[in-house]
TrEMBL record:
Highest taxon in the source lineage: Eukaryota
The protein's name: (rape) hypothetical protein
Location relative to the cell: Membrane
Glycosyltransferase listed as a keyword: no
The Late embryogenesis abundant protein LEA-2 subgroup domain, residue ranges: 107-209
Keyword Cytoplasm on entry: no
Amino acid sequence: MGDRQPHLNGAYYGPSIPPPTKTSHSHGRRGGGCCCLGDCLGCCGCCILSVIFNILIALAIVVGIAALIIWLIFRPNAIKFHVTDAKLTQFTLGTDNNLRYNLDLNFTIRNPNRRIGVYYDQIEVRGYYGDQRFGASNVSPFYQGHKNTTVVGTNIAGQSLVVLNGGDRRDLDEDVKSGIYRIDAKLRLKIRFKFGLIKSWKFKPKIRCDLKVPLSSSNTTSGFQFQRTKCDVDF
């Protein structure tokens, strides 16, 4: 026979058997990549990060749409602050840099919104001369309804150590001569808005009122009277 091999003594043992092929087995992967949640947990953290990222994007979109809907429904307007009256009965800086002061302030807070109420959880009124804070007082918390104007009064009185720089010292000398003092009232608030049955998280707006207040006991003010002053609101 033509297929016999002469070196095997003429016997025919059949065709040669090829060597077995090696097969490789992949553990935990199918198709070379991650294709299901089980694969993600077992083989790569990138899938988990992708899922988390997609969830965060979806939440941000939902919150944004909800905020837009609330704004379109309620159309909030800014709250307005005014100082309607101020009375200064003492403002004396001694040679020891101790400032003795007594200042009465009346504010009006206007909520112009028709559908939004405001919770004033904290109101702190601070008195400043130049860059130096000299005193503070707190106003009791309250709730303000729709389209409402609330009158708030406070008194800042006492003594404190105040060290003025050269410019502020010259300003104080001028104020003493004129009897009209340039005092800043700054309000630090913690407020929440009420939209129907929904209450917002807390906001911390900063209110600044630049005042010119005559000293009540001074005879040099030439009839100057305190003028109603609008405050700057920074949310």
